[in-house]
Amino acid sequence: MSTLAETGLLAGRNLRRFVKSPQLVADSVMFPVILLFLMLLVFGELVGQASRGAYIDRLAPVIVLFSAAYGAVGTGVGFFADLRGGIADRFRAMDIGRLPVLAGRIAADLARAVLVGAFTTAVAYAVGFRFSQGPLAVLAFFAVVAMFAWIFLWLAVVVALSASSEQAVSGALNTPVTLLLFLSSGFVPVEQFPGWLQPVVRANPLSLAGDALVGLSSGGAVLVPVLFTAAWAVAATAILAPLAVRLYR
Amino acid sequence: MTARTEAGLGNLFGQGLLLAGRNIRLNSIADTVSTMVIFPIIFVFGFLALFGNLLSVRGIDYAQFLPPAIVVQWMFSVAITAAFFAASDRRSGMLARYRALAINRGAVVVGRMAADSVRAVLAIAVIVATGYVAGFRFQAGPLAALGFVALSVAFALTISAGTSALGLASRDPESVSSTLHVIYLPLLMVSSAFVPADAFPGWIEPVVRHQPVTAVLDALRALAEGGPTAGPVVKALAWMAGLLAVFSAAAVQAFRRAT
Question: Which regions span the lipid bilayer (chain A) (predicted)?
């Protein structure tokens, strides 16, 4: 079988495992929706007065991105369980390549991130979020979501391959994901941060992808943030993908 | 016939401490330094960076306002971990083993509470120390500061009773903790934890003002900042007494039924 077909098969396995676990589906769908409503409730008035445009235009994309990054924690834990549970050894004994095992995991979780994102934006429509830039922009919106998720999925795979316990996997991934969320322009405009932090906030992939998504949904700059997000994705691939393949051997 | 090792206060506390030691050792494997030390620090500075400027426009010193909220958040986290371990003790058969031992039944509860208190105090120490770096101060003297710690720990133990009831009723630690996360997040966020009640949309303000988490936060802030403390503290204690009555009844029920 070709690498592509093997990847597809393994991705199918991972997606089916996800869909058949009501717990996992509920967790990954409920969490962003709850967070969306809570943030809107708690900070909507406060931030709405301090920024241009409606808070939901900014908030919905950020929640989509955050749940993609947060979903990568689940990827790491799931992949770690595969590695320790024996299925990875079974794959080694079979006549399939090394790469499809990794790629299958990542492809399935990319699909998951996009599905959860689609669901979250659909719910956000109820509270005023709109795609106003045409159908192509909608497609580009989810392409950016996938690109962003891609960065964290490779990170999650590398962490899972080098960790010693499940707790270590989630600990090592939760910390950067939470930091990234706080230090992003997602929840409050970048001008609200202390001056010395602003460069960090601007360079944060979550801020950049967030800007791109805002541009693609409610309007604004698109090209520059998309290029920067792509640069992050390329850099992550160049560093993390070879590392993951090496660790897997 | 009851064995000599089962009755009496000496057994209750002696065995309770022994079990607390076991629980703490288990915890220190499961939650790494990151959840106990790094995360509170990230949350204090993260929220400060995010909302410090926005709230100073409203005349709120966020460095003083925020640490009690992070403390309450971590008390919830202590309680959720308690539920996780209650469920895993039930699943692994450890609970059944405790029942078969000639030990005081209450010692299992004392052991759990003592371990939770240690975790709670540790979290409070880390958060308050981080808060001090950011500008938080206990302005009402050492006695009020002690009251702050005591009230926080009491709050952690109160909700632990409730979460443990849920943990004992289930056998699945992962699903218990994810269910509890979904419950605790709205309770914490729709309170005066991160922004004052008047920053909420008008229709939900009454809910924010009159829910138990806000009552506890008001009391903690009064203890930290000084000013009139008796009113808020009594209100918080009343809420906690009520919750404790319900939760401990539920926990005792669940403990009896759990096999």
Answer: 24-47, 59-81, 102-127, 139-161, 222-245
Contact B34, B127 (CB under 8 A): no
Query: Are B34 and A172 in contact (CB < 8 Å)?
Result: yes
Judging contacts by C-beta atoms under 8 Å, the chain A residues touching residue B177 are none
The rounded Cα A76 to chain-centroid distance in angstroms is: 12
Which of B45, B54, B201 has its CB closest to that of A41? B201
**pLDDT grade, residue A218 (50/70/90)?**
confident
Rounded to two decimals, the ipTM of the complex is: 0.73
pLDDT tens for residues B153-211?
A: 999 999 999 998 888 888 787 788 878 888 888 899 999 999 888 888 888 999 999 99
| Full-model pTM | 0.83
CA of A30, closest CA in chain B: separation in Å?
A: 8
Residues of chain A with C-beta less than 8 angstroms from the C-beta of B87: none
pLDDT digits (tens, 9 = 90+) for B22-44: 777 776 655 556 667 788 888 88
Q: Where are the domains of chain B?
A: 10-257
Among candidate residues A124, A83, A94, the one with its CA nearest the CA of residue A218: A124
Longest dimension (CA), chain B: 69
Looking at residue B223, what is its pLDDT? 93
* DSSP string for residues in B111-131: HHHHHHHHHHHHHHHHHHHHH
Alpha-carbon gap, residue A222 to A220, rounded angstroms = 6
Average pLDDT of chain B? 85
Of A27, A50, A183, the CB nearest to B54: A50
- What is the pLDDT at residue B28? 64
The per-residue b/e assignment along B155-192, b for 16 or more CB within 10 angstroms, e otherwise, is bbbbbbbbbbbbbbbbebbeebbbbbbeebbbbbbbbb
Cβ contact B38–A167 (<8 Å): no
Give backbone dihedrals phi and psi of B215, rounded to 5 degrees, phi first. -60, -45
Distance of residue A181 Cα from the nearest chain B Cα, in angstroms? 9
Domain boundaries, chain A: 3-248
Do B38 and A42 make contact, defined as CB atoms within 8 angstroms? Answer: no
* Cβ contact B155:B72 at 8 Å: yes
